[in-house]
Design brief:
This protein is mainly alpha-helical. 57% of the residues lie in helices and 0% in strands. Helix 1 crosses helix 3. It is globular.
């Protein structure tokens, strides 16, 4: 477990991994599959999905374009 103030180093993903994580349903029904395909623990899938989705939305807002 992380102690207060500790941070986990962000992981680099390939474009295909990012697409897989971001496109997985938020209900968690595909989290096990995504975890196996990307190589991360199941509980981390939901955390990374939300982080990456926020990053995509923030990037889209800053450029004035929505990604397709």
């Amino acid at each position: 477990m992380l102690e207060r103030g500790e941070r986990v180093a962000s992981r680099r993903y390939t474009a295909g991994q990012v697409r897989l994580i971001v496109s997985s349903p938020a209900d968690g029904s595909q989290d096990f599959y995504v975890s196996v395909m990307v190589g991360m623990p199941v509980p981390l899938v939901a955390v990374e999905r939300e982080r990456l989705r926020r990053a995509v939305v923030d990037a889209s807002r800053s450029t004035g374009r929505w990604s397709r």
